[in-house]
Amino acid sequence: MSQIAGHLEPYLVLSGMLFAIGSFGFLARRNAITMLMSIELMLNAVNLAALALGAFIPSLAGQGAAFALLIIAVAAAEATVGLAIVIAIFRNRKTPLVDEYDTMRQ
Amino acid sequence: MPLPDVIPFIGLGWSDVLFLLLGGVVLAAAFGVVFGRDIIKSGLFLILTLGALAGIYVMLGAAIVAGAQVLVYIGAISVLILFAIMLTQTKVAPLKLAFQTQVAPAALAAVLLALLFGLAFGSTDWSSTVFIDTPAATGTAPVAAALFGPYLLAFEIASVLILAAVIGGLYLAMEPRGDEVGEELP
Looking at the 3D structure of chain B, how many domains does it have? Predict the structure, then answer.
């Protein structure tokens, strides 16, 4: 018997909280790599929601997992390009902090 | 002696306890990622978050996604992030200034976002199944039917995207050759 794990809503609430934590990290941190980590958190929250919906709604069986696999592939591509950009900027500016990337503002 | 269905004194089933445990680890480690001063510890907390999420994926009956999570996220992306941390962090990383000046509005926005999600989830009729235990594992056949049926185009585009990302990442991270280096930025 289960009162929590057999229902859809707890998974969605966990996913929403994880997405909110990730969005806070993206908005508040100064370090570019921590911002990328926060993006990974948000993508994982979306994955959790997709899998929960696929598992609990009969007409979506299999589609949630297909969505999650596609999101994982896109996240891998995003992490590759994002970290390469951070390393390329770091080579020029010698800092990983995003608020010091202000050349185009001056 | 078989275990009782419901844990005495708490009134919750075993899968509930497992869900609460994994969910608590996910949220605590995500807070560690976001609030940690030391970026190496942030990266390690990220690995913990992803691992606990893989456990929740198994509870949802999606073992193939949990395997992909461990292989791709923990095995590849986390290692990539840790390498990037090693390449870009200097010893004099400003510990006191881990956050932007907009930290208070960002916290407010995140809390409002969480409340909005809660309202939306609570007020929607999902017409979802209620399982006695966790959802049963469905195996990979429905996943394959969806991935190679209605989502075939998305699947192919994802493979082209990964190829483009690999080439682009190599090009971006490549050391520029000596005589082509532009003027050093101030």
Answer: 2
**Average pLDDT for B27-47:** 91
Phi, psi of B180 (to 5 degrees): -100, 0
Q: CA B144, CA B10: separation in Å to the nearest integer?
A: 40
B24 located within any domain: yes
Tokens encoding A96: 């990983």
Q: Tell me how far apart the alpha carbons of residues A75 and B78 are, in angstroms, rounded to a whole number.
A: 12
ipTM of the complex, rounded to two decimals? 0.92
Is the pLDDT confidence value at A24 over 90?
yes
Residues of chain B with Cβ-Cβ distance to A65 below 8 Å are: 62, 64-65, 142-143, 146
**How close is the nearest chain A Cα to the Cα of B1, in Å?**
18
Q: From start to end of chain A, where are the E strands? A: none
pLDDT for position B91: 60
**B65-78 mean pLDDT:** 92
Q: What is the CATH number of the domain that holds B3?
A: 1.20.120.1200
Q: What per-residue string of b and e applies to B75-100 under the rule 16 or more CB within 10 Å gives b? A: eebbebbbebbeebbeeebeeeebbe
Q: Virtual CA dihedral for B9, B11, A19, A100, nearest 10 degrees?
A: 0
What's the predicted TM-score (pTM) here?
0.89
C-alpha distance from A1 to closest chain B C-alpha (Å): 5
